[in-house]
Amino acid sequence: AALLWGAILLGCSCGPGPPGVGAAPFVAATYVLDDADGLGRQFDGIGAVSGGGATSRLLVNYQEPYRSQILDYLFKPNFGASLHILKVEIGGDGQSTDGTEPSHMHYENDENYFRGYEWWLMKEAKKRNPKIKLIGLPWTFPRWIGKGENWPYDYPDVTAYYIVSWILGAKQYHDLDIDYIGIWNERAFSSKYIKLLRYTLDKRGLEQVRIIASDRLWEPISFVLLIDSELYGVVDVIGAHYPGTKTVQNALLTEKKLWSSEDYSTFNDEVGAGCWARILNQNYVNGNMTSTIAWNLVASYYEELPFGRCGLMTAQEPWSGHYKVEAPIWITAHTTQFTQPGWSYLQVDGHLEGGGSFVALTDGLGNLTIIIETMTHNHSQCIRPPLRNFSVTPQRATFYLKGSFYMVETLQVWHSRLGFESGNSSLFQRLHPLKIWRGRFSLDLDVDEVYTLTTLKTGQKCVCQEPPPPQPFPSNYKDDFNIRNPPFSEAPNFADQTGVFEYFVNASDPGDHVFTLRQVVVQRPITWVSDADQTISIIGNFQWVNMTVTCDIYIEKPRDGGVFIAGRVDNGGIYVRRTKGVFFWVFADGTYRVTSDIAGQEVLMKGLSGVRDNAWHTLTLNIQGSSASGLLNGYPLWENVTVSKPSNGWAALGTRSFEFAQFDNFHVE
Question: CB within 8 A of 412, min separation 6: which ones?
C-alpha cells in the first residue's frame, strides 16, 4: 500500500510495454554459457558522475514532485537507470568543465560541510538505494593547499588532510560512507601522495575506503604499480578515462580491478544511447573492465555551456519543471536492473559472429543475466576516442546453457531497438518470456538492438506523468537573496564559472542589505583548466538579445577592487577566459569601464564614476540592438556605446579579481 501510495503521489507507474519484432537472420552462430570451470572477474557496477563540473547545478532548483521524479529515474532500484555507483566531484572552487563547485575549505582555517549540492545528491541517492557505492574525486583545489603554487603535491600531507577531512565530514554531518576516493582527475599522480593518503585514511579509522588511481590513462600508473610494491599495496582499482573499450598489458599484469572510471560524455540522443550500449558491454568484452561510469549523471546545466546535454538524462529547466528521460537511461537499465555489484561475469569471448557483443553474469546462486548489443558503427560513436570501422549484420544467435544453468527453464526478455531510419525507438520493453529447451535457445538479432535475458523477474519500466512542457528562462527575473536559512549555499539559477558566489548574512548592515550574494574565493585556485582572472556567475537565457540588468553592488577590496554586471555573455565552462559580452565595470578607485570581454582588454568606454569601496551602489546596464547605456544609482553614467558582437547571451555578474564583493537585488528583464 505504501509503495502504491508513493507511486500515486509522484504520478509514476511501472509495467511492461508492447512486444518487439524479430529480424530476418543472415549469420548463424552458437555460444556456450558455462560456469563449470569457474567464473570470470567480479562485476563492480555501473555508475555516473555528478561534477567535473557543476553538471547538477540546476537540478537542485526543481520544485516537487519533479525533482523527486528525476532522482527516482536515476537511482531508484528497478525503476529507471537504477545506478549502482554515484561519483561526485570534491569541489575545489575552480572551473571543472561547466562551472565551479565550492570547496568544503575555501581557506586554511575554514570548514563547512554544507556547501554546494553533492552532499544533498549523495543523500538522495542513498535514500533510494542504500547499497549505492559512493566515490569522491577532486578536479581542483583551493590555493592554500599548494601554499601559493598551482600544484597539490608539494605538501602531500596538507592535501591528504584536506581530502580525508571531506570523507570524515561526509560521515559526521551527513552519515554518508564514502567507498572509494580518487587522486586528481586527469592530471599527474604522485606516488608519495597516494601512499600518504592511504596512511592518513588508516590513521583516521577509514581502512574501508578504497583508492582509485589515476583517473587518466592506463599508463604510467599500471607500469609504476608493477615496479613499486608499496604503491601496489595501496591502490585498489586502476581507473582509466575514455579507454575506447581497450586495456593495456601492464594493467592486466597487475591483476587489479580495472574500471572505465569516466566514459560516455556524448550527446544524449539515439547515437549517444548507441555509444553507451556498446561500451557497457565491450568495456568488459574487449578490456576486462568491471565498472563503467558515465560523465555525466544528468545534464542540469545551461545547454550552451560545453558538452551540453551529455548526461544520461536532461533536466535543465527548473523554472518550468520540464525534464526529459533520454534513451541512455533505458540502455543503462538493461544492465543495472538485472545485476548487482558482487555478481561475476562468465568466462566467454563475448563477440558475436555478425558483429556486436554479449556479456553474461551470475550471482552464483543460480541467477543468470545475459545482455546482448548489436550497435552499428555510425549509430554508436562516442565523443572520444575515434572509433575504427566495423560492420554488424542481422544474425541468429543460439545459446547453450551448461553447468548450473542447464536447469534454467525460462528467461525474462527485455528489448530496445534504436530507430535511426524510422526515428521511432522502442526502449526497454518487456517481451514474452523465452522458453528454454534442453538448455538451448535461439534469438534473431537485428542491428542497433539491445536484449536482456534474465532469470530475474524484478525489472520494471516506470513512467511518471508527463513533466510540464519546456519554457524559456523567465524574461523578467528578480532575486533579492533575502532568505534566512537557504537549503543550498548558492542562489538558484546562477551558474558560477570562475569564483564561488554564496548566500551571505551581512551582520554589520543595519539596512536593506543584510542578506546578499557574496563572491568568496580570494586566491586563484589550483586549477584544472584555464579559469578566468576575474570571477563570474552567469544566469538566464543564452538567446537573449535586448536586456536590462540591474544590481546593487558592494566592493569590499580597497584601491584596486572592482565589480561588473554584464549582458550578452557568450561563453563559460572550460572556455571562460575567452568570454565576450557587454561588461559594465566600476572600481574602488572611482573609475568605470565598459568592455566587450571579461579580460577587460577591449575597452568601449571609460571615465570617472565616483564609486568607492565599502558602500552600496546600484548599477544598471541597458542593451538594445547595437547600443548600450549604463546608469549609476539611477542616473545616466554613459550612453550610446556601440556594441556589435556577440549578438546574444546570458546575463552575469562578477569581480575584477579573486576578491570579496557583494551583490543584492539582482533584476534582469
Answer: 430, 433, 434, 452, 453, 454, 455, 456, 457, 459
User: ω before 129 within 30° of 0 (cis)?
Assistant: no
Region of 128 please: left (phi>0), alpha (psi -120 to 50) or beta: alpha
Which of 315, 346, 379 is the last residue in one of the domains?
379
Q: Is 217 helix (H, G, I), strand (E, B) or coil?
A: coil
CA distance 99 to 122: 19
Same domain as 504, residue 356: no
445 lies in some domain: no
Q: How far apart are the first and last CA of the chain?
A: 48
pLDDT at 364: 97
Across the chain, which has 669 residues, the per-10-residue mean pLDDT values are 38 57 71 97 98 97 98 98 99 98 97 98 98 98 98 98 98 98 98 98 98 98 98 98 98 98 98 98 98 98 98 98 98 98 98 98 98 98 98 98 97 96 90 97 98 98 94 98 96 98 90 95 98 98 98 98 98 98 98 98 98 97 98 98 96 98 98
**CB of 375 closer than 8 Å to CB of 274:** yes
Q: Which amino acid is at 443?
A: L
The reply to whether 101 belongs to the active site is: no
Q: What is the CATH number of the domain that holds 123?
A: 3.20.20.80
Enclosing domain of residue 641: 477-668
Q: Which of 111, 186, 353, 669 does the annotation list as catalytic?
A: 186
Alpha-carbon span 53 to 573, nearest angstrom: 8
In this structure, is residue 499 part of a structural domain? yes
Report the candidate in 468, 463, 470 with the shortest Cα–Cα distance to residue 11.
463
Do 136 and 248 lie in one domain? The reply is yes
What is the pLDDT at residue 26?
Answer: 78
DSSP 337: T
Question: Of these residues, 89, 101, 118, 262, which one is catalytic?
Answer: 262
Same domain, residue pair 372 and 511: no
186 classed as catalytic: yes
C-alpha closest to that of 542 among 669, 651, 624: 651
Asked if residue 610 and residue 489 are part of one domain, the reply reads yes
What strands lie across the sheet with 440-445, from one edge to the other? 27-33, 395-401, 440-445
Does one domain contain both 201 and 310? Answer: yes
Q: Count how many Cα atoms sit within 13 Å of the Cα of residue 111 in the half-sphere of its side chain.
A: 12
Please say which residue of 317, 349, 379 terminates a domain. Answer: 379
Q: How far apart are alpha carbons 608 and 642 in whole angstroms?
A: 19
CATH of the domain at 648: 2.60.120.560
Distance CA 547, CA 287 (A): 52
pTM above 0.90, yes or no: yes
Q: Is residue 23 part of a domain?
A: no
Q: Do 371 and 354 touch, CB atoms closer than 8 A?
A: no
| Residue 28 domain-assigned (yes or no) | no
Q: How many domains, the chain?
A: 2
Whether residues 606 and 486 share a domain: the answer is: yes
77 and 213 belong to one structural domain? yes
Which grid cell is 515?
A: 542578506
- Domain identity same for 492 and 344: no
Helical packing angle, 156-174 and 191-203, nearest 10°? 40
Neighbouring C-beta atoms of residue 611, cutoff 10 Å: 23
The residue written with cell numbers 536590462 in the block is 548
